[in-house]
Amino acid sequence: MATASNFFEYRWFTSRIPGFCRTLLPGLVLCVVMVYGMQAASPSDNDKNKEAGVLEQTIHLPRQSATIYDVLSQISRLTGMYFIYDSDLIDNDRRIRLQRSSRPVKEFLSEILDDPALDYLVLEQHILIFRPGEEQPEAGDTKHDEEVPPPAPDHFIIRGRVLESDNGNPLPYASVSIPGKGQGIASNMEGSFSLRLPVELLDTVVRFSYMGYRGREMPLRLLVGRSVDVMLETDYISMQEVIIRYYDPDVIVREALAKRHENYSRAPVYLTSFYREGVQRNTKLMRYSEAVIKVYKPAYTSITDEDQVKLLKSRTITNIEAADSLELKLEAGVGSSLELDFMRNIPDFLDPETMGQYHFVKADIVSYNSRSAYAIEFRQREKINQALFMGVVYVDTETLAFVGAEFEVNPRYINNEQYLFIRRRSRDYVANIERIGYTVRYQLFEGRYILEHVRGEIRLKFRHRGKVFNNNYLAFFEHAVCHIETQDVRRFQRRETMNTHTVFSDKDLVYDYGFWGDYNFISPEKEVSEGLAEIRAKIESMVSD
Description:
Number of strands: 28
Strand order of the largest sheet: 18-28-27-26-25-24-23-22
Strand content: 35-45%
Low-confidence stretches: 1-50, 135-149, 239-244, 508-513, 536-545
Structural class: alpha+beta
Distance between the termini: 28 Å
Oligomer: single chain
Helix content: 10-25%
Number of helices: 11
Shape: globular
């Protein structure tokens, strides 16, 4: 039986990797949910009467047996209205029977929902379904919620999930943002989000967007205190536009690179961001760290100025036990996520000196954040036998700005060069790297593009020699920009900054329960939440002793 003192340590190792790879491979991310209960404001009589004609509109529905979600979707198509409701209030999957009839929308809703306590509010293109006066819990509420302080009166919270309208599947890493305000967050892998905003934004809108889907905007006032499912529809590109034209991917890439300094911020900015990193073995969370940081991001035209990071809040947990015979650690930290800003740190596949190693395959037209973009696939040339990158970059068709990328280390060669990624190996274990992948997304703010979201992950299998079964490991990091500031931006004092290669899991940070306060964070996935709950109970037990 191994003891805590003789764990084998595996690290991402990058110092011998040529070009862009050297900067990418360490550092990973995850987040903890701290949420707050909020009283849903009851609509005024004037609000109730506003556009009430929609509820009195007569529509025809055929005889059918269908789910509530399917019937509400039919009403939405007939009226041009979107429904908003707390996902805990209505069971979307409950099947109902309807007789063919023509009736006002409100009568159909009463029959479909079968709950006389529900009321309706029409605002712009949305119908809110709610229970008057009911307090709505916030996302991630657990048995520990009584420890979480209530929100300050100058803030409010919106939460929910971003899903596909066709099948209800989650849209991971969707963008949830306030247009023109530089505030937002990314959904987690399950499409869940939670966003805390100042009350002065209450009368504005929130925008939900995802690559390949039509973006949606909703009034923030309708979402306060509710957990909503936001359905995004596939955004189809005109076949005529795709077929008639031929797009040379090499030309597009070179023109986009030539416009780099025109499309990206010419002045330094502050980015308040949520960062998380973690290691998971099978379903067990072994290490988990998260932080709110403030990044000094230099102008994209600057060559000598460097990113700086100020640590605002952070915490970490370690769930290593004596029975664990193998420990996986990470190297690098926040610096890796900043290096993935590929418009500031040009990667090998976009560097004019090394682009010859890559072949840009084709340039399809796709929808990206409700704008048209070229999706340009790239891969290393066949005669090159090293582990280089392959993936897709997205270029806005109008501005020729790089707006995002999805890429990975070529899986064909990745295990031939394991020494580049793993060090301090043990002869007792056989390792197999399954995937090292990254996603990067930019946002348009005040006419310029700025980093919005970064995620990286490495998936590995370890097997003890002589054993049949593998253990699956996932190491990950994530960096989501929550707020952008452009006024009075100066470099931090040296004493204020942290080393961007800090590994949070190597720091003795304090874990407390009323932690994030006014800061935004990425909602944790379900299995991560369960893992954190187990660790949290252990920490509470130790504290109480």
